[in-house]
Each structure stands twice: as structure tokens, then as C-alpha cells.
Amino acid sequence: MELEELKATWQSVKPHITTTECMKNTQESIYRKADVKSRLLRRLGFGVFFSFVCLILLASSHLWSPTKLSNLWLVAFCLIISLAIFCEIYLYKSIKRINLWKDTNAGILSAIVKIKKLYKNIELVTSILVILSLIWLSFIPPFNNLLDRTIIFGLTIICFGAEFLWYRSNLKQLNRLSNWDKE
Prior knowledge:
- The chain is 83% helix and 0% strand.
- It is an all-alpha fold and 183 residues long.
- Helix 2 runs antiparallel to helix 4.
- The longest helix has 39 residues.
- The radius of gyration is 25 Å and the shape is rod-shaped.
């Protein structure tokens, strides 16, 4: 008799267990993390698009640019931008692989740590390549004009500043994606 009463009590309580406050908070947290993930993917997709547009503009600069850069400059920077585009696409795919619904918190956290390390290395390598290319190419004879050199270095400093802000913002989004209890 006690067993049947226990079964009846369990059956009456069972529907209420699935909708507890803890599960609601967990689902809301996952939905927020999904929003952060989709926002981050949009930002990276925009970054790939912007880099591709920059690549096209740089490759076709002989058609529209008043300061005709040498072919060596164009090839060097087109290669660096192409490398950055491939790295951004890989980063995009790595973030897209995170499954907030099936992966454990530890799995998600380890994936985000790997992505942050990869992102930091991508930024570091591309920055070093750009700086070394600028230093090396600025001593080539066709680029002895001080005005052109000043414009290129000024634009480079502005682009590094904008890229740093973009990088910091994306890291904040990754941090929001990894913090399950804090918002």
C-alpha cells in the first residue's frame, strides 16, 4: 500500500520538477549565451567581409589610388590580408562549433580558452607581419617620398588602434560566453 501511495505522490510531483526555478534560470542563461554567440559570429562575419573588401580595394589600388604603391607593397599586404582572412574564417568556424545545448560547462570553457589563445596568436602574428613589412618596405627606393610615408604610417597607427579596440570588444564577448553565473 505504501508503495502505491509513493508512486501516486511521485506522479503528482513529477510534472512540477521539470519546471523548477533552477532549470528556468539555466535555460535563460543558455539563451543569453546563444545571443552572445550569435552576436560574436556576426561580428566575426563582418570582420571577414571587411577584410575581403580591403583586399579587393588594395589589389585594385592601381586603378584608383593617386599614390601608386609599388607591386611589392601590394603583393606583401595582399598576402597578409589573405592570411588574416583565412585565420578569421577558422576562428569563426571554431566559435560556431561550440554547442551550448549539448556541451558541458567545462567543455565550453576549454573551447573558449583555446579560441582566445588562437585569437591572441592571430592578432600577434598579423601585427608583427604588418610592422615588419612596413619597416622593410619603407626603405625600398620607390617609397622615399616623406608625405606618402607619413600618410601610410598614420593610417597604419589608426588601423592598429581600431583593431585593438575591435579585439578587446570580441574578447569581452568571449568572456561573456564563458561566464555562466555572471552577466
